């Protein structure tokens, strides 16, 4: 595409953001539909000043990532009810200087999981108690699933379980649970913890579906073990893809070119 005076600007704000795959995904989608839009990474430390800048520069939409998903909320002009319930925003839609906050993380997780299982009435064991787990948990309840939380940190886990009105147990006891699906929303499996499993291998037969939100590596040790145990698996790229597709549709009003976005993400991963 050619960038010119009519090009509309979108981006992702966080700290750090240089590692983000979202520019590849969204720019691929814009190009595929011939939209005169571009998406850039914005490394942001001062959220208040950044939000003022977004308004002043006429930026149309922004993804919000760690550590700003909660901090942006005090600067919004309006907020989606589910995002308010979750207590975190990952998407800003900006019209004439007015900033609306939404959360598509839960939509991404639900869409990824619903490709393998019917969510209404399903039982899910969710590992982790951070921001991603919170969004996923609220989304599952919205879809009519029942939930159990397991986490390493009792205080955070019990607080999230109370907010979601569901049971909590220590991560070390997660192997005792039987459920339709298991979702890993911990950092176990990525970076320096790549070889670590959040649950014992022998417990994986307790689940029909295993989903990992870690996408680097794409085939985590958990997903490899789950496949060997006969489980259906969902990699971390699926949630990233579908939450991005929901963002694209909020910003443009057009149906997201999901397959183009998937291939853009895979190419970006391959280049790392």
Neighbour order of strands in the largest sheet = 2-1-3-5-6-4
Poorly predicted regions: none
**General form:** globular
Helical stretch count? 9
β-strand number: 12
- Per the CATH scheme, the topology name of the largest domain is Rossmann fold
Order of helices and strands: EHEHEEHEEHEHEHEEEHEHH
- Strand residues, percent: 15-25%
Q: How big is the Rg? A: 19 Å
Question: By CATH's scheme, which homologous superfamily of the largest domain applies?
Answer: NAD(P)-binding Rossmann-like Domain
Summed over residues and divided by their number, the pLDDT gives a mean of 95
Taken together, the total number of domains comes to 2
Q: N-to-C terminal Cα separation, in Å? A: 24 Å
Name some characteristics of this structure.
globular, Rossmann fold, 272 residues, six-stranded parallel beta sheet, 2 domains, 9 helices, 36% helix, six-stranded mixed beta sheet, single chain, alpha/beta
Give a description of the structure.
- This protein has 272 residues and is α/β, with parallel strands linked by helices.
- It folds into two domains: 8-103 and 240-270, 3-Layer(aba) Sandwich (Rossmann fold), CATH 3.40.50.10860; 107-234, Rossmann fold.
- It has helices at 22-32, 47-57, 81-86, 105-114, 131-142, 154-164, 221-228, 236-252, 258-270; strands at 8-14, 37-43, 61-64, 78-79, 91-95, 98-102, 123-127, 146-151, 168-170, 179-184, 207-212, 232-234.
- The strands form two sheets. A six-stranded mixed beta sheet has the order 2-1-3-5-6-4. Strands 9-8-7-10-11-12 form a six-stranded parallel beta sheet, with helices on both faces.
- Helix 1 packs across helix 8 (236-252), helix 1 (22-32) packs across helix 9 and helix 8 packs across helix 9.
């Amino acid at each position: 595409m050619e960038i010119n005076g009519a090009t509309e600007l979108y981006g992702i704000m966080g700290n750090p953001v240089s590692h983000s795959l979202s520019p590849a995904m969204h720019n691929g989608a814009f190009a595929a539909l011939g939209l005169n839009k571009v998406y850039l990474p914005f490394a942001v430390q001062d959220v208040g000043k950044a939000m003022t800048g977004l308004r002043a520069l006429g930026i149309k939409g922004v993804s919000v990532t760690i550590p700003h998903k909660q901090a942006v909320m005090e600067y919004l002009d309006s907020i989606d009810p589910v995002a308010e319930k979750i207590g975190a925003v990952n998407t800003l839609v900006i019209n004439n200087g007015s900033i609306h906050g939404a959360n598509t993380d839960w939509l991404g997780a639900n869409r990824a999981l619903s490709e393998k299982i019917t969510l209404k009435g399903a039982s899910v064991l969710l590992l982790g108690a951070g921001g991603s787990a919170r969004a996923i948990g609220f989304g599952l309840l919205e879809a009519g699933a029942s939930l159990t939380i397991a986490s390493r940190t009792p205080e955070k886990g019990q607080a999230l379980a109370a907010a979601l009105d569901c049971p909590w147990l220590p991560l070390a006891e997660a192997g005792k649970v039987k459920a339709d699906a298991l979702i890993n929303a911990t950092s176990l499996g990525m970076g320096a913890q790549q070889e670590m499993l959040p649950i014992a291998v022998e417990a994986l037969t307790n689940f029909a579906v295993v989903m990992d939100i870690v996408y680097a590596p794409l085939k985590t040790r958990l997903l490899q073990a789950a496949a060997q145990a006969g489980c259906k698996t969902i990699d971390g790229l699926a949630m990233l893809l579908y939450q991005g597709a929901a963002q694209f549709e909020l910003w443009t009003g057009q149906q997201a070119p999901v397959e183009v976005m998937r291939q853009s993400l895979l190419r970006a991963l391959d280049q790392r």
